[in-house]
Write a structure and sequence with these properties.
Blueprint: E1 7-9, H1 17-20, H2 24-28, E2 36-42, E3 49-50, E4 61-67, H3 68-76, E5 83-89, H4 90-93, H5 97-100, E6 112-117, E7 121-125, E8 130-137, E9 140-145, H6 150-153, H7 183-188, E10 191-195, E11 200-203, E12 208-213, E13 218-225, H8 235-246, H9 251-264, H10 289-306
Parallel strand pairs: 3-7
Antiparallel strand pairs: 1-11, 2-4, 2-5, 5-6, 6-13, 7-12, 8-11, 8-13, 9-10, 9-12
Length: 307
């Protein structure tokens, strides 16, 4: 984690009862599977890849509500690719599962989530969380890219996404190198993880990852957390604000603001206010929680005035 690098954790959850069970379907039926959940159903043409349809306003899958038990039974019948329920809160969807299948590496307050489906492909995306993904059933292949590869991954719209976070538009099975010529540079920086049941993967903050489920019945449990989630503003808020305020400035002005951000925000030259007593650093020094809330409120008023 301190290195900001992914790590394969072989056999981390191999002793989970869910992993050791001869039949994952039979194991799940020990619990109450009556909870309704949102199920994604890919179009026949999708080949299990959840993505955009003919344009960025539509998707190549539909969403339906179904009982978790019905989904489990359908998966046992060797369904076509493109059937899945994603990011289910286990405490609500499958009470009792987490008590039998525990991960001591994370804080007990971190709520596990479940991803269950057939052969599906999740487009390359990032999460603003740290992530430990634990394979319970089926094989999975992860392809990971460090954050600095964003320019080589050709990101789609932020406003309309298949699952809430921006995705790479590149089809990893058939990349269009005329449209996406820098994608080979991303692949040169990629790391691949092939995971079997019982294996886990640590994915660092904002690392891009493309996920492929390889078997007819796949189940993964993951844990998301962010050590800095109590910040007064989410980094994405700042990012969108910067797009609005800085992106269309003249080149020389954007260059000037890049220098300001590098110095004061990213500490490119070390601690920027080391030459001043701590009590005199103001907003350019450390920001206490009360001061941060006041600054956020002030920013809100400034934006409202612009509206």
């Amino acid at each position: 984690m301190p290195l900001g690098q992914p790590a394969i954790l072989r056999g981390l959850v191999a002793d989970w009862p869910a992993v050791r069970a001869p039949s994952i379907g039979d194991y799940l039926r020990r619990f109450d599977l009556s909870a309704q959940t949102e199920v994604l159903i890919g179009s026949p043409e999708s080949d299990g890849r959840f993505f955009y349809g003919d344009d960025f306003g539509v998707m190549n899958f539909q969403k339906r509500s179904a009982a978790l038990g019905a989904l489990v039974e359908r998966l046992e019948q060797a369904p076509l690719p493109g059937l899945a329920a994603q990011a289910l809160a286990i405490a609500q969807a499958l009470p009792g599962f987490a008590a039998e299948n525990r991960l001591d590496l994370v804080d007990p307050a971190v709520a596990p989530r479940m991803w269950i489906g057939s052969r599906v492909t999740v487009a390359c995306h990032y999460d603003t969380m740290r992530n430990i993904a634990c394979v319970v059933a089926g094989q999975r292949r992860f392809t990971l890219f460090p954050p600095d590869q964003v320019g080589n991954l050709y990101v789609g719209p932020y406003e309309s996404t298949p699952a809430g976070t921006p995705v790479s538009l590149v089809d990893f099975d058939a990349p269009d190198l005329t449209r996406f010529p820098r994608f080979p540079d991303a692949l040169a920086a990629a790391q691949t993880a092939e995971l079997a049941p019982g294996d886990a993967l640590y994915i660092p903050y904002i690392w891009w990852h493309h996920v492929r489920s390889l078997d007819a019945f796949n189940l993964l449990v993951n844990y998301w957390w962010n050590d800095a989630q109590d910040a007064a503003l989410a980094p994405l808020d700042c990012f969108v604000h910067a797009l609005l305020a800085l992106r269309d400035l003249p080149d020389e002005q954007r260059a000037a603001w890049r220098a300001m951000f590098d110095h004061f925000v990213f500490h490119g030259d070390g601690e920027p206010m080391a030459h001043l007593p701590e009590a005199s650093r103001g907003v350019l020094g450390g920001v206490a929680p009360d001061r941060a809330r006041a600054m956020a409120a002030q920013l809100g008023r400034m934006l409202a005035a612009k509206g």
